[in-house]
Amino acid sequence: MSDEARPPSDSHGASPVDPSPVDPSPVDPSPVDPGQVPAVTEFSTGVPGTTMGLAARCNRLLLAHGATVATAESLTGGLVGAALTSPPGSSKVYRGGVVAYAVDLKAQLLGVPLDLLERHGPVHPRTAAAMAAGVRDRLGATYGLATTGVAGPEPHGDQPVGTVDLACFGPGEPVVRRCRLSGDRHEICEAAVVAALDLLRTVLERDPATG
What we know:
Number of strands: 6
Helix content: 25-40%
Radius of gyration: 16 Å
CATH superfamily: CinA-like
Number of domains: 1
Largest sheet: 6 strands, mixed
Strand order of the largest sheet: 1-6-5-4-2-3
Distance between the termini: 45 Å
CATH architecture: Alpha-Beta Complex
Number of helices: 6
Order of helices and strands: EHEHEHHHEEEH
Shape: globular
């Protein structure tokens, strides 16, 4: 099985969780409409940099921008948030995070449209994009950073082990990356954290500082 666990449907095949107890309105799906989704760039294992070094760099850039970040994580299970909160002073730039491991929680907590999840599944660039947009909106951050993917040991549907989708949404052009990572579950998750931090760093270095 993959890291993503699909909840069972009811006897009529309907979604088993009504997102209304948290928020009945999903995130505006327009950022992930077919005509607007940014181009997906594929990366392989070997993103340069260390977790703590990248986290410290991201925090310095966020502080220089006068900006904040929030994280939406699936396969990484909170590891990106843990990395970003390791450097001293992180409370000035890190708003918080949502670990939405189950598919239904991606809709319930992050506002990912159910029809998008039904059409593309939990491991897809558009799902990652909707997660990033949702956490940015719901946690009131300048940037939203999201991870979803397959850590193994088995593939998820037609998605092979090591498939990781990342997205970063901020004031500028959103960026989505699909990574092909290798190794065991632990190694894939650790590599996904480095890739996510590298994505955030890239976006922050691209965007002009306002702080």
